[in-house]
Task: inverse folding
């Protein structure tokens, strides 16, 4: 593959032991794998063997799923990433941190420190946090409203960028804004890539605009090809209108993968990994996504038009607007009943799932990539490490034969791998 040829970006979204609720029951994990650094290092080594772009850690500073159904993130992300950095050479390291529940100076220092010691392999995934359960962890009675969160996020990101720049310029930052007053200069040296690129995971209109103005990658939730294409065009247009090269921002939808040697084998694996999940699990998740209790809806009828147009109470809606738009778009496009929508979502999520053979998964990746719906994907294997091993050993070779994916690592930093413009620093001696 030519070094100048456009290729798919593939990150693995490491949801502890996998996105499937039953993944923790498989033989290649144990009950405490979700807090075992050896487990995460093993997953990273498999990803690096497959020359994947990055090891991605989603996170929320509190519970977002019931631990009685599946374990979720317990270790702080930069702790995991530091362990992975020490045991790998090439794989990128993407950590999630909330702008609502962090301090800009502390976050800038923490991520640049990790970027420096990893040789320039780190990116920050910017989130604003929407889960109401998190607020009480920080002494708040509720999550700040969406407009406040995004104004704070924009100022937060700008301030972190300025602090990272100060590491190279030697000039202190003097910032006095709506949310922050800071007089500071980072002690950490610039990294091999200057400083970490930014990933943005918000799917709301404000989030997409923020991504177009600031991000180098967008973790989106898309269930249909047409919706993915619209999102792709919108973010690229915002980037262009902001004076950026639209190629500097990569659109990376989540992609759930369940792999079998035949389609039926994949379906059987999928059903086995969900066999113990209570029916209310998907029911409650879809209700949160829609902003209404499903008990109020007729399961045998499509979603009412009032829900298709938006949440019943936008000011108090507590879910993800990105997930909501993805789910509602699928329901509208295919005229699904509520019961059919529940079955399609396999638990209420907003990410596309491909349950099939390696060729079927490679076909989806190629089609979305070639039709301007995605620049790559954040892979979400059903189980870790087995689902990732299947992808690396069976799907990656197909993508390589089609000229869509690298045979070996050639870039030393994650910024170069994403082909993102370098930060403009005027270094002082």
Result:
């Amino acid at each position: 593959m030519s070094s100048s040829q456009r290729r798919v970006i593939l990150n693995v979204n490491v949801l502890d032991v996998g996105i499937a609720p039953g993944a923790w029951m498989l033989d290649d994990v144990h009950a405490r794998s979700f807090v075992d650094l050896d487990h995460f290092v093993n997953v990273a080594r498999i990803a690096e063997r497959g020359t994947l772009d990055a090891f991605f850690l989603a996170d929320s500073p509190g519970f977002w799923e019931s631990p009685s159904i599946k374990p979720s993130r317990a270790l702080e992300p930069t702790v995991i990433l530091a362990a992975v950095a020490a045991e790998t050479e090439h794989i990128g390291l993407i950590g999630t941190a909330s702008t609502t529940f962090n301090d800009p100076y502390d976050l800038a220092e923490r991520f640049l420190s990790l970027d420096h010691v990893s040789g320039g392999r780190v990116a920050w995934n910017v989130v604003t946090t929407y889960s109401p359960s998190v607020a009480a962890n920080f002494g708040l009675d509720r999550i700040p409203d969406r407009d406040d969160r995004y104004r704070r996020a924009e100022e937060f990101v700008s301030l972190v960028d300025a602090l990272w720049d100060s590491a190279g310029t030697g000039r202190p930052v003097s910032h006095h804004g709506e949310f922050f007053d800071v007089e500071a200069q980072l002690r950490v040296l610039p990294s091999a890539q200057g400083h970490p690129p930014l990933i943005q995971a918000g799917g709301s209109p404000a989030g997409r605009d923020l991504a177009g103005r600031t991000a180098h990658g967008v973790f989106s939730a898309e269930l249909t090809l047409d919706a993915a294409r619209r999102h792709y065009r919108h973010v690229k247009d915002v980037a262009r209108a902001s004076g950026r090269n639209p190629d500097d921002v990569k659109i990376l939808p989540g992609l759930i993968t369940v792999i079998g040697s035949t389609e039926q084998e994949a379906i059987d694996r999928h059903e086995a990994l969900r066999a113990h999940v209570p029916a209310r699990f998907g029911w409650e998740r879809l209700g949160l996504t829609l902003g209404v209790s499903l008990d109020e809806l007729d399961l045998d009828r499509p979603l009412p038009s009032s829900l298709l147009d938006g949440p019943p109470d936008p000011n108090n809606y507590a879910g993800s607007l990105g997930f909501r738009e993805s789910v509602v778009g699928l329901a509208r496009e295919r005229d699904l009943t509520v019961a059919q929508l529940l079955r399609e979502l396999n638990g209420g999520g907003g990410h596309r799932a491909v349950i099939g053979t390696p060729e079927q998964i490679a076909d989806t990746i190629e089609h979305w990539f070639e039709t301007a719906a995605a620049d790559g994907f954040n892979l979400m294997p059903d189980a870790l490490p087995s689902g990732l091993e299947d992808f690396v050993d069976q799907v990656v070779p197909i993508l390589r034969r089609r000229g869509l994916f690298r045979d070996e690592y050639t870039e030393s930093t994650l910024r170069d791998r994403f082909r993102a413009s370098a930060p403009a620093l005027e270094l002082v001696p």
Observations:
- The longest strand covers residues 250-259.
